[in-house]
Every structure is written in structure tokens, then in C-alpha cells.
Amino acid sequence: MRLDNAALIFPAIRRRRWVNVFRVSATLKEPVDPALLQQATAELMPRFPSMYVRLRTGFFWYYLEELSEPPKVREDYAYPLTLMQEKELHTCCLRVMYFRNRIAVEFFHSLTDGTGGMIYLKTLTARYLSLRTGREIPAEEGVLDWREAPRPEELEDSFPKNANKYILKDKEPYALRLKGTYDPNFMHLVTGLVPTGKLVETAHAYGATVTVFLAAVMEESILNLQAETTRPGRRKPVKVTIPVNLRRLYGSRTLRNFVLTLNPGVDPRMGDYELRELCKIMAAQLTAEATPQQMSGRIAANVTPQQIPLIRLVPLPVKNVVMRTIYGLRGESKGCINLSNLGQVRLPAEMGAQVERLEFIIGTQRSYPNNCSLVTYGETTCINMIRNIRESELERRFFSRLVELGLPVSIESNSPPIPGQRS
Description:
Structural class: alpha+beta
CATH topology of one domain: Chloramphenicol Acetyltransferase
Number of helices: 14
Distance between the termini: 47 Å
Shape: globular
Strand content: 15-25%
Order of helices and strands: HEHEEEHEEHHEHHEHEEHHHHEHEEEHE
CATH superfamily of one domain: Nonribosomal peptide synthetase, condensation domain
Number of strands: 15
């Protein structure tokens, strides 16, 4: 299987500081039985052929090869999103793990995006719970029937079929780069649990969706952080990278990658901004850009060069150098931090009664030492902020600001506070 259009870049630019892995997890009300989880993992193998693969290196392109047997379920260890070494990717591109009551799946990003990953997790968890309880869980609310054959539309690369004939030119200014003291031995995770009803109410009070509101709060936090450390004339644009699920725009049902990012934001050299202004500006920018016409032009910018015969014949090592160079110039230079929202996730009633919590965690990137992801399940929105630097100042500002705005936030962390730093 060829990699989809978005997946091609990940093997080429993989580095120790950028793992290109994301995690989805479900916390159950009872401890996980590893043997039953292994059985469920094996039984889903025919249903998800694009997930049970390993990365292979061809002369012209990377490609994915189906596994002959399912991956071994392992106990969770260390910290989320540890590096997938090349040897592991050549064996299997996903991990199925458990820890106490939690089932977690980590995906190399060449397989799928957050939406596809959550569909797999829901189906895996549903099958596991069916084996555990003896009661079948219906295939609804994004849970697929594990006994069915995969549908052709689930395996398609949806990028080429939705590319415009004309390329949308990239004229965005470069954005601020967040920095800190790199920690090579740990991935720091801070989780904020927020009541969903109160979050929606507060966002609507600012005339915004939850995604826009949280992105505006994040932008405000970064603006204030930059203002304290940089002279006005030397300040750079602050923009939050927001992935757009293209399935909603084009009606795709693919389980592979089908996401593009937008970078709404402001230039602080133009003046100061109140939170309400930031919400208004970011909502307007997203509304203008996240249209089928505009996104088709962005898709074309990625698809068209790969269809040029001369480029297709270039050996893979040369392609890797070119892709790394282009990514360095365009890939992350136009934003400061990701804010990826999977939105409201629903489960079949028979399954929901046994699931306490869902989580979504994206990794840090090559030049984004901080990243943020969130998912809503039931009455709780789970906001995960991850970083590969020691300083926790951005998380402190972001969650403190939410509290100032009247939102009760319960904080969890996988690491103790650093001596001498504010908690």
C-alpha cells in the first residue's frame, strides 16, 4: 500500500525530537485483561488492513506492508509517545497498550490521523468489552462491525481526488518560535479536565466555538509571554496551528490521513488585542479559509508536485533531502503551536456505561516544543498539553487564564514540578 499524500512527509523528516506519533486512549471502569485485549487486537486485523502494517523502504517511495500476524499487546511504560525507532516501524507502525484500567493505542502518523485513530480505538474497545462481558456492542456511533470486510472508501487516499487544478499560493508570514530547555529523557504531559457545559457556555459568551475560544486563549497566553521577553519592534506574529478534518468538507469516509492545517493568528506589532477580539479574528480567518474551494487549492500544493513524472523517478534519498528542506521552509514555520480538537466523541450506550474517559494526545514537533490536543466525552473535555522542554510556563498561563475566565479546571501531570519554577 502506498502512503497517502499527507503520510509521505513523516518518514522523511522523522527525528529523535519529533516522534510523529499520536495516542488515543479509553479509561474503563474495571482493570484491563491483557489476554482478552490481545484477542480483540487479533480479531480486528482483517477489518483494519491499513492499520496493521509496517513501514518499508522502496527505491522511489516509502510504502506500507500488511502484517502476517497482529502486534503483541504490551503494558504501558515510561511516558506517552516514546520514540518509534526505525526497527520498530519496520515491525509494526502501531502500539496497543494497557495500564490498569486504560487501553491506549499509539499510531505512527503515516497510518492515519486522529479521526481514524479514534474509530480504531472505539472498535477495539467495543470488541474487548464484548469479549469481557459476553454482550455484543452494536456497530454505531463510529464503532465499526469487526466482522465486516473493509470498505474501499475507508482505504482510499482522499487527497488526489479532491485536489484543485490550481495551487493556492502560500503567502503567510513566519511566526514566533517557542523555545525552552530541551529535555531528552522525558515527555512532559499536563492534563486539564474541564466541565464541557461550562466550557461551551463560556465560548459562546465570546461568540466562538470551543476550538476558536481555546485557540484564542492559547494565542493570548503566547502573546503575553512574548511581550514579557521581547521588545515591541522585534515581536513576531503569533499563530495557532489548527488541523481541519477534511472529511466534513468533502464527505470522505477514509480511515487514512485526511487533514490539513490552518494558522489563524495576529501580528502583535499592529497593536494589543483583547480576548474577544482574538476570538473574532480567529473565527473570521478559519471561516474564510476552511472552505472546499480554498482547501482544494491547498491540497493541490501538496499533490501536484508528486505527480510530475521527473519527480516520481527521483530516488528516495534525494526525495528525503528535498522534503526535509521544503518542510523546514514551510511545514512548521507559519505557526507556534498545534491545537487539535477531536470534538465530541459519542459511544454506543452499552459501551458508554463502561468507559469513564477518553483522551487524545499529539506529540511535539521538530520546532514546536509544546503542543495541545483535546477531546470531549460525556460531561468532560480533556485538554492535554505536552512538551519536550523543562519549562512549564505556557501551560501555567493557559490553564490559569481559563480559571480566571470562570472555568473550573482539574489539573493532572505525569511529572513533579521543577525546583525554582512556579507551579
